UniProtKB/TrEMBL annotation:
One of its GO terms (molecular function) is water channel activity. This is Aquaporin 5. The chain crosses the membrane at residues 24-42, 49-68, 88-107, 128-146, 212-234. It comes from the Eukaryota. It is a multi-pass membrane protein. The lineage of its organism: Eukaryota, Metazoa, Chordata, Craniata, Vertebrata. Keywords: Membrane, Transmembrane, Transmembrane helix, Transport. The keyword Lipoprotein does not apply. Its main location: membrane. Belongs to the MIP/aquaporin (TC 1.A.8) family. GO terms for biological process: hyperosmotic response; renal water transport. SUPFAM superfamilies: Aquaporin-like. Pfam families: MIP (PF00230).
Length: 268
């Protein structure tokens, strides 16, 4: 007997479970390798840290085509009607579990002096609004630059991965853009463009102070990028009412039409 969500989506089929597992493995590998540059070598130059994050995300995406690795990316795909909300819940859950796993491994390897911080992102209360603005602007720039390649299939957007099937060559620039964004933000907050990256250390150290900033900024930036792409650059709808109509048709009235495989719809 197959288990289905209330929207009629089969959530126990092997391909979908494999995608969820890939999100867990990919996020674990990405954060374990990238956070190692912060936790195990705390005195590295900020440029080295940024390059470590860019290189780790590039290697992870080459090895695991199709992974999102970032709840903000998954959110943008959901509001763009490219990923089912029920799929997104499990994807984000796998990403957060992978973040906790990666930080748990680092916690066991890190010296005692580094275990109280574990690469956690922190902000100052008086500059919270400034940090949110920086997150919005940098994330918006990265997502828009990444998705601005002119190809015939506008579904190839809002992803942080490389795909051998994708004809647009700008995807290969994403690790460089990721490193650039981190270089800009690292002096302000330690950089938290990925909510999962901020979530893992916060849970392991039991420090959730101002943690909402590292969710609000990247997620809002991802939604703004989706609005820019689907409503301005390559319009799919003429207005919000058209989006609501399509959302109801795809996810409420005709569940069989909703996306079942992120790779087949987003060409990640």
């Amino acid at each position: 007997m197959k288990l289905q969500s209330p929207l009629g989506l089969d959530i126990c089929c092997l391909p979908f479970l494999r995608d969820v597992f890939r999100e867990f493995v990919g996020t674990t590998l990405f954060l374990f390798t990238s956070l190692s540059s912060v936790v195990l070598w705390p005195h590295l130059d900020p440029l080295h840290v940024a390059l470590a994050f860019g290189a780790s995300i590039a290697l992870t995406c080459v090895c695991l085509d199709g992974v999102h690795l970032n709840p903000a990316v998954t959110l943008a795909l959901v509001v763009g009607l490219r990923v089912s909300p029920w799929q997104a819940v499990l994807y984000v859950g796998a990403q957060l579990l992978g973040a906790i796993t990666a930080c748990g491994l680092l916690f066991g390897m890190a010296p005692v002096s580094a275990k109280d911080k574990l690469g956690i992102n922190e902000v100052r209360n008086e500059f919270v609004c400034l940090y949110i603005y920086l997150y919005l602007s940098v994330n918006l720039s990265i997502f828009i630059t990444y998705s601005s390649g002119k190809n015939k299939r506008p579904l190839q957007t809002f992803t942080s991965t490389i795909n051998r099937k994708n004809k647009c060559k700008k995807e290969g620039h994403f690790p460089l853009l990721r490193s650039t964004g981190k270089s800009i933000q690292i002096g302000f907050t330690g950089c938290g463009m990925n909510p999962a990256r901020s979530f893992g250390p916060a849970v392991l150290t039991l420090n959730l102070e101002n943690h909402w900033v590292f969710w609000a900024g990247p997620c809002a930036g991802a939604i703004l990028a989706w609005l820019m792409y689907d409503l301005l650059l390559y319009p799919r709808w003429t207005g919000l009412s058209d989006w609501i109509i399509e959302f109801r048709q795809v996810f409420l009235t005709s569940p069989s039409k909703q996306p079942t495989n992120p790779q087949s719809n987003t060409e990640i």
